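It is worth pausing here to work through a concrete case rather than discussing structure prediction in the abstract. The textbook approach is simple: state the sequence, then state the predicted structure, then interpret. We follow exactly that order.
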Amino acid sequence: KANSECPRVSKPTITDIKKKKKQAVFNSYVTNIGTPIYTECGFVYNTSSNPTIENGIKLVVSTNGGGGNYSLTVSDLVVNTEYYVCAFITSPIRTFYSEVTQFVLPPISPIIETLAVTNLTETSEILNGIISTVGEPAYTERGFCLSKSSSSPTIVSSKSMKYVVTGNGTGNYSLELNNLEYNTEYYYRTYSLQSS
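Step two, the predicted structure:
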């Protein structure tokens, strides 16, 4: 079209990611209002690599043709999911897209706590823990790790022993250990595993 100029928008940035609220803020900038001036701008996103108005979720932010920065808080996102986002701008000619930005809303970690030992004898004890939040996605394994030499035992350390406790959900769980070495100091703590 004679004397026409394409409108342009910048590649989005993603800020204020809040995994517990399942929110993120999308930001972009109209770098050129175009000739004729654009009539609509916003964002489009999905979980595939090339979001468009036809295959993604369209979010309109402005229709005033004024240019400049614009942002939008997006809710109801799914944790541990990769999203693809681009800005769009529509003129009387057609719709134009920015480059694509990728981001992941991180998983919500389980909340797990190590409790005091009970039923302690010379060679046995009961380890105790509690899970108050299962996380999202929910944890797939729970238990204890125990060590005689490390004050911070882990399930991957060669100096630690791993004990799996069956079960799921929230609440207390325990493990009875027997045949412990007499007059020996042990260190233990709870653990949980979550699928990535």
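Step three, interpretation. The chain has no helices and 15 strands. The first strand starts at residue 8 and ends at 9.
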